[in-house]
Specification:
The structure holds two protein chains of two kinds. Chain A has one domain: Ubiquitin-like (UB roll) (Roll), CATH 3.10.20.30. In chain A, about 20% of the residues lie in helices and about 20% in strands. In chain A, strand 3 and strand 4 form a beta hairpin. By secondary structure, chain B is mainly β. Chain B has one domain: YVTN repeat-like/Quinoprotein amine dehydrogenase (Methylamine Dehydrogenase, Chain H), CATH 2.130.10. In chain B, the strands form eight sheets. Chain B has a four-stranded antiparallel sheet with strand order 3-2-1-30, with no helix packed on it. Chain B has a four-stranded antiparallel sheet with strand order 4-5-6-7, with no helix packed on it. In chain B, a hairpin with a 7-residue loop joins strand 4 and strand 5. The chains are: A alpha+beta, B mainly beta. Chains A and B meet through helix 1 of A and strand 6 of B.
Chain lengths: ~100, ~375
């Protein structure tokens, strides 16, 4: 079981709670988690990554075990603590404003 | 007596303002989609409870929402706007070729006759259509396929398709406008398009009389007079009486002919409204006075409408989609400002009062007249 934390605006858009819990078959990767997330919440398609290229939207970042994994290959297995559900995969929006 | 529902899109959410036909007391609902930019909301003429909204943000891109109960509840629908085929290139600001990239939906125009059909004008400029209530979108690729696309270029706000007008007497005919390409018309339901810019004269482009390249800010049409269109161009207020084949300037005695909005009285096809803005670098009213100018002669002769509007120290802008009219017997006129005010005139511009004063910057205003 993978735990995913969404930024506030996407939590509201999806109606998901503070944390989404997903079951992933096989080795959990960022790509697989996002696929499962978009399958559960279709309204999130296109809001985290591009519909076609699957590239991360530039103002969003992915964190696992306090590490920024935004620039790592999305097919790389997630850290064991994220894969086991001990730590969440955090999707976070860039801070903007004054 | 009829009610009115005003749909307001702002930089940080949507607001719905409702009143009875007197238009004196208002209820304010919102923010809906708080924190998101709502470029446009519009209700279906075929079913007023069906409303479409364009929701976007720099963080999370484009979302399209629809309501089937007049804006009480919403559901996100498809947000996949994929250009047909190989997108090709348009001109970038420096004149170099730049690939077409979808950025956002600027304008949603529901069909006149079918609540499930809606058109979307997007940046980078293209028109899409959904026939299933927004559940899927398909580009009307004949517009970009016209052949002039490589000459289109973005205005300061981006290369947006911001205006979609449907001919009430001919379902095959529509008009669109793009900043900065110009106006286009289809006579075959969106299959093919032709530029209709003859008579436009724009000194800020290399060929002032070019077929395409004009920065059209807004076009308006009276439903009963579909061959006549009014245009607020970057500079110049224009009109055509032959479906866009020939335009002529009707700026007349306006204090400045720069501006964004233009609209037509619901019952008087020769009565039009604009909000003059000082210049393209000074996006505020001349002399700090917010004035709606009304022409009862289809242009050229204009009178300032000031009663109830701030006449000193006012430096707001009124953006291109932020004016609308209702169809009550005494035509109501509405507009929103970048300062967050939404003004209503229940008497066709004679007097004004603010419905709300302190919303986020207003991007769009639409009105539904509900019986």
């Amino acid at each position: 079981m993978i735990r995913v934390t969404l930024p506030a605006h996407l939590r509201v858009l999806s109606g998901a709670g503070t944390e989404v819990r997903l079951e992933i078959e096989g080795v959990p990767t960022l790509h697989a988690v996002l696929d499962a997330l978009e399958e559960r919440y279709p309204m999130l398609s296109g809001t985290i990554r591009d519909h076609v290229t699957k590239q991360r939207r530039p103002f969003l970042r992915f964190f696992a075990c306090s590490e920024d994994i935004s620039h790592e290959p999305t097919e790389r297995p997630l850290p064991d603590d994220v894969a086991s559900g001990k730590e969440p995969l955090i999707i976070i929006g860039a801070i903007a404003g004054g | 007596m009829s009610d009115v529902r005003v749909l307001v899109g702002t930089r940080k959410g949507a607001f719905i303002l409702t009143s009875d036909g007197k238009r004196q007391k208002w209820e304010v609902s919102g923010p809906h989609f708080g924190g998101w930019e709502i470029y446009h909301m519009k209700g279906s003429p075929a079913n007023p409870d069906r409303i479409y909204a364009s929701q976007s943000s720099s963080w999370s891109g484009q979302v399209v929402q629809r309501s089937s109960d007049g804006g009480k509840t919403w559901e996100a629908v498809d947000n996949k706007f994929l250009y047909d085929g190989v997108p090709g290139t348009h001109q970038w600001y420096d004149g170099t070729p730049h690939p077409w990239e979808f950025k956002r939906v600027w304008h949603l125009e529901p069909s006149l006759t079918d609540a499930e059909t809606v058109y979307a004008g997007v940046e980078d400029a293209a028109i899409f259509r959904s026939t299933d209530g927004g559940a899927s979108w398909k580009e009307l690729a004949g517009l970009r396929g016209h052949g002039s696309g490589p000459k289109w270029q973005p205005g300061a706000g981006g290369m947006c398709l911001h205006t979609i007008l449907q001919d009430h007497s001919n379902p095959q005919r529509m008009y669109i406008a793009i900043s900065a390409a110009g106006a286009f018309r289809t006579d075959d339901g969106g299959g093919s398009w032709k530029p209709v810019n003859r008579g436009l004269h724009s000194l800020y482009i290399p060929d002032a009389n070019a077929e395409v390249g004009h920065c059209v800010h807004r076009i308006a049409m009276h439903p009963a007079r579909p061959n006549t269109l009014f245009m607020q161009k970057h500079w110049d207020v224009m009109r055509t009486d032959d479906c866009g084949e020939n335009w002529r300037e009707v700026s007349g005695d306006l204090p400045t002919d720069f501006g964004f909005v233009i609209d037509v009285h619901a019952h008087e096809p020769e009565t039009i409204f604009v909000v003059p803005i000082k210049s393209d670098s000074e996006h505020y009213p001349p002399d700090g006075k917010l004035r709606v100018y009304r022409s009862r002669t289809g242009g050229n002769e204009w009178e300032p409408m000031t009663k109830g509007l701030p006449q000193s120290d006012c430096y707001v802008n009124v953006l291109r989609d932020a004016m609308a009219v209702d169809s009550l017997d005494s035509c109501g006129v509405y507009f929103g400002t970048t300062g967050g005010q939404v003004y209503c005139s229940p008497d066709a511009g004679d007097t004004w009062s603010p419905i709300v004063r302190d919303l986020p910057a207003v991007l769009s205003v639409e009105v539904q007249t509900l019986s």
